[in-house]
Write a structure and sequence with these properties.
Distance between the termini: 44 Å
Number of domains: 2
Helix content: 40-55%
Low-confidence stretches: 1-56
Number of helices: 9
Strand order of the largest sheet: 1-2
Length: 180
């Protein structure tokens, strides 16, 4: 860990022990340095944060439909203010829009942490390549190929094309990310 990362981590821990940190989370195993309450230090490097082992096994929350209480329960150390900001900018049409709006409050590394728990719904005929890449196992080249194959007659037609690029488990995740 670099000296600056260590100092940022220590600063975040100092703020959380001084009572300034008001983040709420149901995950008590997450480190204090990962806190992203609007009032807390937000520039903790990704290397200084950890994600619970079971995060990959849980379903992500749809940014356009989840309630503030669901965000608070699912996203470690997410404060009330940031949960409100998630709702404030709805509807999200792309993951880039989410990154841009949340980037007003936290660093890109923290946004990447949020994305482990949330997704922007994918509209098969409209989603940009970056939004398509929310699908596990899908790279930029494959996302561009999906875009080039448009229009899709249905979500099932999109999923049929996607089958060539991802595993069965990844396809199941993609199905859950599809919007109407």
């Amino acid at each position: 860990m670099s000296l600056s990362a260590l100092l940022l981590t220590l600063s975040a821990v100092a703020c959380s022990s001084s009572g300034e940190n008001t983040a709420r989370s149901t995950n008590n195993n997450a480190p204090a340095a990962a806190n992203t309450n609007v009032n807390a230090p937000a520039n903790v490097p990704a290397a200084a944060t950890t994600t619970p082992a079971n995060a990959a096994n849980k379903a992500k929350l749809n940014l356009n439909t989840a309630a503030e209480s669901e965000f608070l329960a699912a996203v470690p150390n997410l404060g009330n203010k940031m949960a409100h900001e998630f709702e404030e900018y709805r509807p999200y049409k792309s993951i880039q829009q989410f990154r841009r709006e949340m980037g007003k409050y936290v660093k890109p590394e923290q946004i990447a942490e949020y994305e482990k728990y949330v997704f922007v719904p994918i509209i098969a005929n409209d989603a940009d390549a970056v939004t398509l890449q929310q699908i596990p196992g899908l790279d930029a080249t494959e996302a561009q190929a999906l875009i080039a194959a448009r229009p899709y007659a249905s979500n099932d037609a999109f999923l049929a094309k996607l089958t060539a690029s991802v595993s069965a488990d990844e396809l199941a995740v993609a199905r859950s990310y599809l919007g109407k």
